[in-house]
Amino acid sequence: MKRVLLVLAAISLVGTFALAADPPPRSGGTVTVAITADPPGWDPTASTSQEIARVMYHNVYEGLVRLDRQGKIVPALAKSWTVSPDGKTLTFQLRDGVTFHDGTPFTADDVVKTFQRAKDKNSGHTHPEYYASIDTIEAGPGNTVVFHLSEPNSSLLFNLARPDSIIYPPSEAATQRSHPIGTGPFEFASYVPGSEVVLVRNPQYYIPGEPYLDKVVFKIMPDPNTRFAALQAGDLDMIASSLPPEQYLQIEKGAVPGVKGTEGTATTEITLALNNARPPLNNKLVREAITMAIDKQAIVKGAMFGLGTVISTHMTPAEPYYINPDPYPYDPAKAKQLLAEAGYPNGFKIKFELPQPYPIERRTGEVIAQQLKQVGIDAQVSVVEWTTWLKRIFLGGDYDMTIIGHSEPRDIGIYGNPNYYFHYDNPVVQNLLRQAEAATSPAVQTADYQEVGRIIAEDAVNVWIFSPPYLVAARNDIYGFWTNQPTPAIDMTRVYRAP
Amino acid sequence: MLGFIARRFLTAVVSVLLASVVVFSSLLAVPGDPAEAILGLNASPQALTALRHQLGLDRPAAARYLSWLGGIAHGDFGESLNYQRPVGRLIGGRLAVSIPLTLASALLACLIALPLGVLAALRRETLVDPLITAASQLGAAVPSFWLGLMLILFFAVRLHWLPAGGFAGWSVDPVRSLEQLALPVLALGLGQAAIITRMTRAAMIEVLDQDYVRTARAKGLAPRRVVGVHALRNAMVTIVTIFGLSLTNVFIGSIIIEQVFALPGMGRLVLTAIGARDFPLLQGEILVYATTIVGLSFLVDVAYGLLDPRIRYT
Predict the structure, then answer these.
(1) Residue B119, pLDDT above cutoff 50
(2) Could you say which of A201, A208, A293, A436 would form a disulfide bridge with A335 (CB–CB 3.0 to 4.6 Å)?
(3) CATH topology for A269-467?
(4) Through-space distance between the first and last CA atoms of chain A, rounded to whole angstroms
């Protein structure tokens, strides 16, 4: 833990130095940012589409708490909070004088109703399980809100920092998908489907002087080459999601005049998911062999041009409990031997399905198929359309092998769900995860999560390939944007333009 | 003549209805439903059930189809599940991009292709024909999205003459909107021109070999008159077909071009609707596509009848 803190301190120091070199913030101006698709509405509690969070989270909608640039939980609509010694009561002190964009005041009652709705499984909220430990919520004295938990839950505070925990006027839940009303630094101004979303400065924002920009335009541009061309042509000011590594490297080399690039951390694990219930993958020796047949370093070099961190369990360096156990390092000879031991001396044929919308996953998948061939495994690659992938593979668990980036932060809990599409059922892991959830001490929680990380690596549940970096391209006169992505959001609050 | 038009019209209406049934039933066979697409990864089963009920997806398919058809009869296309807006309004907004794009591209294609095709047919013995043929072969082989990217790189990134993509909207900034359509029209039109050039050349050559052209030449008519009146008018039947075809091709081809130029047109709306399993929106769009294509071939049929009286009775 100490080491983690030291690293964090070092990162924030570097951050301060970088900031010191930036010109002082000034107000005014517009920044145009690319996003890749029309999401299904703009309510982060009604869909898990990350485009919603990218545009809306912190810009328009806020929650009680939030993550800062280093991934630390910090105050937002709650000024402060206390946790009772038994870990079962959380008291939030709310900010005074906050209003929603429609002019109505933000009250403790709004918070109570928001989380009563969130934990209701029939409300249409996408993740009621995040709030399952909340027994009752009530408004307390002096503009406070008290959460009474049925059992201690160490993840709750983090869950409250997710985009799913944003607060809007509870009476207007039904219209949020088309008419978002939040408390954030920007107000939702207009949306032309397929074209753009416009946010304008919220003059009533409770932090004086913020935001700096008058207007932010999110342009919907599905094609990465078009986005890059638009940036070069000056039609676009920023690409802050899905910037391909090769484009970032061009910017790094100075090949795009007037544009700078940054490389930071994100919480995505590019995961070769294995169906642990289906032969031959239900044989641990086979899964070990597959792990040892894959040269992750070569993938990062070949498919990512060297950008990315090799990982060996479901954890990225951006998460507080990061470890890299690597029990089965690259060794194709050993992999062949393991296959023979498992009864497949001549290898086997297996279906390998790649998700159509994700170029990094598709590229990585092609390389993996080649590498598996070296040890005799014939991975038959096919590309699957996204909704089909969601339905059959992800929700239905009907597949052999697939590859996907798990981008949600701190989501190791998925390994405790035997119905999840990995079909991994290990009571030891399930117990540890429950223990970690109920832990009142962060040190105990971290130790539990790390133990889970080691066990799933040891069991070779999946092959965790690498964690791609968070890449941003922006015009040279733009400052203050986030260079790390602890949670999917393009927070424009402190972005400014200075010549 | 009226009977001919009425018969063709009836066929067209039946075709559109059949298309809507085919589309509706094929959507039922596709895996994944709108609730899953909207809720995305990690959604709880309860949330899925709740949303399915809210969207009316738990009603039988036949009932949904009939109520949709009933709505259409009253001019109501229903509401998009993904955008939560009326389908009619969404499609209307997209057609404001797609119709100008399609018409301008098809027109550009014909303006380039007709003279070139005729020229190639007339200059068969010289270098002109193989040059035009080679150029049109190259043009037909180049994928339109690649051509689009090259145009962006040259005109937008390098010369800064035209925007790289997007669409301002006719009411917001008409001049900018026109500028933003220029490169997509070029990308679509050039590819289409290559195909039409080859077809025009072939049609002209066939007509030029006919006896009546030889007769016209033999009786000493000016070459311009031989080509312009005797040959071209007779080649018109083929050329009208080609124009109709090219409108259809461009309308369909714009799906990719809209993606490349980030244009909010019909094509991208279709892709979004498929991805989101937005059935009401998709049905409305397919209906518009089917009506357009059937409508165009109906118009071409009628034009045939006008150009060539023999066709009415066949």
Answers:
(1) yes
(2) A293
(3) Dipeptide-binding Protein; domain 3 (3.10.105)
(4) 41
Instruction: Give φ, ψ of A166 to 5 degrees.
Output: -70, 160
How much is the pLDDT for B42? 63
Contacts of B277 in chain A (CB under 8 A): 387
- Tell me: the pLDDT tens digits for A138-172? 999 999 999 999 999 988 999 999 999 999 999 88
Q: Do A193 and B44 touch (CB under 8 A)?
A: no
Instruction: Say whether A121 and B44 touch across the interface (CB within 8 A).
Output: yes
Q: What is the mean pLDDT of residues A272-290?
A: 96
Cα four-point dihedral sign A193, A199, A204, A207: positive
Cα torsion B277, B279, B281, B284 to 10°: value is: 140
Q: How confident is the model at residue B313 (pLDDT cuts 50, 70, 90)?
A: low
What is the number of helices (H) and of strands (E) in chain B? 13, 0
Return the structure tokens found at B234: 């007779």
**Mean pLDDT, residues A420-426 taken together:** 95
The partner residue sitting opposite B41, judged by closest CB among A41, A48, A122, is A48
In contact, B228 and B284? CB cutoff 8 Å: no
**A192–B169 CB contact, under 8 Å:** yes
What percentage of chain A reaches a pLDDT higher than 70? Answer: 96
Question: Is B51 a residue whose pLDDT tops 50?
Answer: yes
Interface test with A, best of B36, B38, B145 (most A CBs within 10 A): B38
Same fold? A8-60+184-266+470-499, A63-176 = no
Peptide bond into A244 cis (omega under 30): no
| Beta-sheet pairing, A349-355 with A401-406 | parallel
The predicted structure's pLDDT at residue B312 = 60
Strand partners, A266: A485
pLDDT tens for each residue of A108-142: 999 999 999 999 988 888 888 899 999 999 999 99
pTM, to two decimals: 0.85
Domains of chain B: 98-313 (1.10.3720.10)
Residues of chain B in contact with residue A232, where contact means CB-CB under 8 angstroms, are: 156-157, 164
Question: What angle is formed at CA B57 by the lines to CA B55 and CA B61, rounded to 5 degrees?
Answer: 140
Q: What is the mean pLDDT of chain A?
A: 91
CATH numeric code, A8-60+184-266+470-499: 3.40.190.10
Q: Which two tokens stand for residue B212?
A: 């009546």
Interchain CB contacts (distance < 8 Å): A and B:
159
Distance CA B238, CA B235 (A): 6
Higher pLDDT among residues A21 and A24, named by residue: A24
Looking at the predicted structure, is the pLDDT value of residue B271 above 90? no
CB crowding A249-285: b at 16 or more within 10 Å, else e: ebbbeeebeebbbbebbbbbbbbbbbbbebebbebeb
Contacts of A221 in chain B (CB under 8 A): 165-166, 262
Q: Distance (Å) from the C-alpha of residue A121 to the closest C-alpha of chain B?
A: 6
